Amino acid sequence: MRRSMFVPVLAMAMLPGAWAEAPGGFVLGALSLTPEPWDKQGNFAKLERYAREAASRGAQVIVAPEGYLEGYVGNGKRTPDLAWTRYAAEAAEELGGPLLGRVRTLAAELGVYLMTGFAEKRAGRVFNSAVMFSPAGEVVSHYSKSHTMDDEPFNTKGAEFPVVRTEFGRWGTLICFDRQLPETARILALNGADVIFVPAWGSYGEMNDMMMRVRAYENGVFLAFVHPKRALLVDPGGKVIAQSEGEHDQVVLGRIEPARRGNSLLRFRRPELYRDLATER
């Protein structure tokens, strides 16, 4: 994929720990990390190392990419010889599984909200999911990708768009391809989301950066795009708060202030004119 042509507009000029001293809001740490396929233990070790770094630098909410734990092996382009039996047995894990238990423990130890993408085994099927653990080690957000392409042959589509309340505002999650359908971010915004997390894989670059800025602006939300090669944090005005530099593994920090939510576009909507949007064609 082509690298983004955007010039970084905000480097992390503040000293480690300085973010957390500012009043209101919270510090988000986006972990732009490339995992190894099938290496769940090694991927967790990297997640732990970078999550500790992010927390030491003031991050209160930490997000890793789509499919991070198993190395996103559920995609046919990444794993051409993918077989259901191996995928379900070696990659997928139940929400209460042992490796996610270690992620849960890490969140509690660091006292942070911690999200990771993973292949979720549930009711005999596998979902492309993301889970957020709270500083108390509890599941605060759990979302399964609702829009998948043909290159995810074994992933079942999710069917809900939860918005969760925290002391830092109301959060929604989309996963990768979900973001390309404008209705997904809009339904989260209409349901009250202040912040939308987008753990992703796949495409990134200049066009994606523009799309993420538009999604934030048109819905009046903060948005965090977290990809193995790109991290982008955007405010409700579509302006970049922070972004990755280069494509190496890194932590990107940015301050999110949900109280600032808000262009007023949503209040001008006329839903009675949009019924055709919900009609199959």
In short:
With 281 residues, the chain is of the alpha/beta class. Helices cover 22% and strands 26% of the residues.
Structure write-up:
By secondary structure, the protein is an alpha/beta fold. It has a single domain, classed as 4-Layer Sandwich (Nitrilase/N-carbamoyl-D-aminoacid amidohydrolase), CATH 3.60.110. It contains five helices and 13 strands. It has helices spanning 40-56, 84-91, 98-110, 182-190, 206-219, and strands at 26-32, 61-63, 113-122, 125-133, 139-144, 155-156, 163-166, 169-173, 195-199, 222-227, 230-234, 240-243, 250-256. α1 (40-56) runs parallel beside α3 (98-110) and α4 (182-190) packs parallel to α5 (206-219). The longest helix has 17 residues, at 40-56. The chain is globular and about 50 Å long. Mean pLDDT is 91; it is low at 1-23.
Topology of helices and strands:
Blueprint: E1 26-32, H1 40-56, E2 61-63, H2 84-91, H3 98-110, E3 113-122, E4 125-133, E5 139-144, E6 155-156, E7 163-166, E8 169-173, H4 182-190, E9 195-199, H5 206-219, E10 222-227, E11 230-234, E12 240-243, E13 250-256
Parallel strand pairs: 1-2, 2-3, 4-6, 8-9, 9-10
Antiparallel strand pairs: 1-13, 3-4, 4-5, 7-8, 10-11, 11-12
> For the residues shown, what is the average pLDDT?
91
Task: Give the tally of β-strands.
Answer: 13
Tally of helical runs: 5
The amount of helix comes to 10-25%
> If you consult CATH, what is the topology?
Nitrilase/N-carbamoyl-D-aminoacid amidohydrolase
Poorly predicted segments: 1-23
CATH class: Alpha Beta
The major sheet is characterized as: 7 strands, mixed
Shape: globular
Strand content: 25-35%
Instruction: Give the termini separation.
Output: 32 Å
Name the CATH homologous superfamily. Carbon-nitrogen hydrolase
User: Which structural class do you get from the secondary structure elements?
Assistant: alpha/beta
Compute the CA-based radius of gyration: 18 Å
Named CATH architecture: 4-Layer Sandwich
Give the SSE order as H and E letters.
Answer: EHEHHEEEEEEHEHEEEE
Query: Any idea how many domains?
Result: 1
